[in-house]
Amino acid sequence: MRLKIVQAGDSVLRQGALPLSPEQIRSDEIQQLIEWMRETMRDAPGVGLAAPQVGLSLQLAVIEDPGDLQKAIAPERLAERGRRPVPFHVVVNPSLALDGEPVEFFEGCLSVAGFSALVPRALRARVECLNEAGDPVTIYAEGWYARILQHEIDHLRGTLYLDRMHSRSFMTVDHLTRHWNDLPIAEVKQRLAVGLPT
Ligand code: ZN
Which residues are catalytic? Predict the structure, then answer.
């Protein structure tokens, strides 16, 4: 089933979400929710979806960056972002540790539909969480996968990329794909006067 993705302005996106016990994770209700969130994410399509985005204030997110989605992207752009396929998995009750200098790329969100902005994110992330079976796991991620994890875990804390973006780079996806996507990030920042005093 395709779930409705709520948009910026809905207060559920601004609340800290509630943790789930391993027993709750294994329940039919949550297993069903995971399945529906997987279908909703694939249908969108997106590379991550957090429970608050479907109106549920729970510390649960699904992530998948399949090779199919990356076929249309130039190999050099994938390499620059450190973007490699990530299999489907579930993150519950995560804690996050960041490492490495921030890197800046355009990022979007299914709950801020039609827009994008440059967002600085740490290059590496370590996440301690429970998986879809309710078992504890540690995830070490780098590059685009680390960005996805930071974005989804932000959702579980009521934070959107809007809170972290270079606001001068905020634009429609239409503008991004027509005019900016192929330029080096340093040139984008210079032309949009990102980082200069207003
Ligand atoms: Zn999002």
Answer: 152
